[in-house]
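Input.
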Amino acid sequence: MHQHTISSSQRAWLTLASAVEVPTGKWLALLDAYDCSPEDIVSANHKKHDLPECKPLITKISQARVTDAVLWCESSKNHYIVSYACDNYPKRLLALDNPPLVLFIVGQHQLLANPSVAIVGSRRASHHGKQIAHMLSMQLAQQGITVVSGMAMGIDASAHQGALSERASTIAITGTGPDKVYPPKNMQLHAQITEHGGACITEFFPGVTARAWHFPRRNRIIAALTLGTVVVEAKIKSGTLITANLAANIGREVFAVPSSIFNTHSEGCHWLIQQGAKLITNVDDIIDEIAVQPLPFMSAVDTDSKKSEANSLATDTLLDSVDYDITAIDVIAQRSATPVNQVMAVLLEYELRGLVAAVPGGYVKLRGK
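Output.
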């Protein structure tokens, strides 16, 4: 049963967008120059259709793509198409030279109006990096800010999961059609996002599979849609740095999380900081820079109790002996002057409390001083 009806305006925008070889900025310039609508250009009966500038572009249009898009949208009440002229088209995307003419959305299209922050980083992230992305995302969600990322493995996935852990909304901008999930390993994450109040959004038509050049295009939407971009871990030559540079070029805030100078995945973050990105160590550093009033989610009592818990943890010698990088059990035992069997018992308790995590080669600290 059909759930949505596509308006004639949306169909016209879809028709222009189906000419995937034509930069969207070229269509917009034509519409502006001739003070006309997309319907005027795509209608064979309209004089605008015969304009010399339009004729070569119209040959690039694919009615098959338009048909596929309409069928996709009408196939589920959870599928939406937001076109350039829609009231809920995100105005922040207008900062782009070639903004998407249509967005295909699975999930909550209303999220486009929410204040949002991007959290991005390496696909091959360290355990520590993934924990930071999860924590920052969770804390942003607590403040009522939607977390945006690209649903890749590593930092992206951890960022989405951090928001979901607070039963909060998150947006994934994808590099495939709305009916494809990439990478396939994130099929479950895709379902969690779309079924629990989030949204997966793309400019690529149904049926389009992942291609290398799709991801820089996806990244420009991540950069433009959000108030700021947080880079957790990134190499110097990476898509993550492309996103950060795009964000800076269109006047968005760029934040970077520092790490060990021996961590190759942090080279990009340190370079960004040298270029003027804001070094952050907690969510307040982000909130201070973006013009959003945080929600009073946590009461003063909760805050005080968490501070006292942190203070008590800070005095724990054994926890002090675990680094944020991988620490071997014998090193922890030596530092804390505690027998190995006792160390293992305490570490198991800490792991259950979410203070440390077991990783190949030992343990890493997640919380505490």
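The first strand starts at residue 79 and ends at 83.
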